[in-house]
Specification:
By secondary structure, this protein is α+β, with helices and mostly antiparallel strands. The protein folds into 2 domains: 69 residues, no CATH class; 139 residues, Cupredoxins -  blue copper proteins (Immunoglobulin-like), CATH 2.60.40. It is built from 4 helices and 12 strands. The strands form 4 sheets. It has a 5-stranded mixed β-sheet with strand order 3-2-1-5-8. It has a 3-stranded mixed β-sheet with strand order 4-10-9, covered by helices on one side. It is elongated. Bound molecules: copper (II) ion. Copper (II) ion binds next to loops.
């Protein structure tokens, strides 16, 4: 009872806040991370995400129309065929026209849903002629990003609670070295794992790809606006599963070029080759 009362009080305090968040989210003002009391998806940040959201809205309209039609039909049947209106009930058992209709109409609706659904599925599956490639390799519990065209590799680990800068960072989402990408570029993302199964999951980009040891899975992203977009590994990958977030910074081409120049110097010394008996690897 105590808990219930606490819940009611908390709800009361948060109602206005929740309403503001809902309105802001619905209007697309929040781009990158989950919000308290969020009731809608994160705003789309890539061209694929834009398409998926359009499809989502289209399906919602369709669902609303079908639900309203079924509800209307139920109300009509309840009134029209109630016992007091039918002292001598009809003995009808079959109606060929209605039976054909209630089979054919759902099939047509499914086809109407399937065509755009498959179109988006194939569109989002893999990029055609990507302009750059990034390989994201998961390990317990951090990400390693390889800019394969630039010979640049670095690790990305979560910022610990005591090191969080509350003005710019979010605990459990912010990392020391974010994945920086230019907007308007078609980026191929290759996802792999060094150990157990992980996932590269960035909701606002509508990417959710498993990282599996010995396999390379593929996705792609092309950001439409600058911003910081967060994601998380959503496979239960071990004790610190919640401590390997993904932080993507989408910036202008000029800012990306400047970052790349700095990153090449910064990370050049950081990653020494791993020495093994027969020579060196990781070069
Ligand atoms: Cu993981």
């Amino acid at each position: 009872m105590k808990q219930f009362r606490h819940l009611i009080e908390t709800c009361g305090k948060r109602t206005s806040c929740a309403l503001a968040v809902f309105l802001a989210t619905a209007s697309g003002a929040i781009a990158s991370q989950p919000q308290p009391w969020q009731t809608y998806t994160q705003a789309p940040s890539t061209v694929v995400a834009d398409q998926v959201m359009l499809f989502h809205d289209y399906l919602n309209v369709l669902i609303f129309v079908i639900s309203a039609f079924v509800l209307g039909l139920l109300v009509y049947v309840c009134i029209r065929f109630k016992a007091s209106n039918n002292p001598n009930p009809s003995k009808t058992t079959h109606n060929t026209l209605i039976e054909v209709l209630w089979t054919a109409v759902p099939v047509i609706i499914l086809v109407i849903v399937a065509i755009p659904s498959f179109k988006i599925l194939y569109y989002s599956d893999r990029s055609v002629d990507p302009e750059m490639t990034i390989k994201a390799t998961a390990s317990q519990w951090f990400w390693t990003y390889d800019y394969t065209d630039e010979n640049l590799t670095f690790d990305s680990t979560m910022v610990e609670k005591e090191d969080i800068d509350k003005t710019t960072q979010t605990y459990l989402l912010s990392v020391d070295n974010p994945l920086v990408v230019p907007i308007g570029k078609r980026i191929q993302v290759l996802v792999a794992s060094n150990d157990v199964m992980h996932a590269f999951f960035v909701p606002s980009a509508v990417i959710n790809i498993y990282g599996i040891a010995g396999r390379i899975n593929e996705a792609w992203m092309e950001f439409t606006k600058e911003g910081t977009y967060y994601g998380q590994c959503n496979q239960i990958c071990g004790m610190n599963h919640s401590s390997m977030p993904i932080e993507v910074k989408a910036v202008s081409q000029d800012a990306y070029d400047a970052w790349l120049k700095e990153a090449k110097v910064k990370f050049a010394a950081a990653r020494a080759p791993i020495r093994v008996a027969s020579g060196t690897i990781n070069e």
